[in-house]
# Entry
Amino acid sequence: MAEVEDREKSAPKRPAKGKADAAAASPPSAPESHAALARKYRPKVFPELIGQDAMVRTLRNAFATGRIAQAYMLTGVRGVGKTTTARLIARALNYEGPG
# Structure
């Protein structure tokens, strides 16, 4: 019994897990030079979208004629550029983001 008490006293005490620990455990944000390749080379204008010719043509015609739909349905498997396309559309509409 005394041995168990001695072990408990000599063992290092762990701090209780909380928000401070979660913040300390999160990785620091990567500087631009270490950004993921997908983010670093993400298309910034419609012509840079590769393999999406039909969609780019449709969007370009919509902007040229001023007939932009209220919504666009972007579908596809992971990695085809749905989010990138949505960001390009938002940028073309001069959306600045929240805040």
Summary: Residues 53-65 form the longest helix (13 residues). The mean pLDDT is 76.
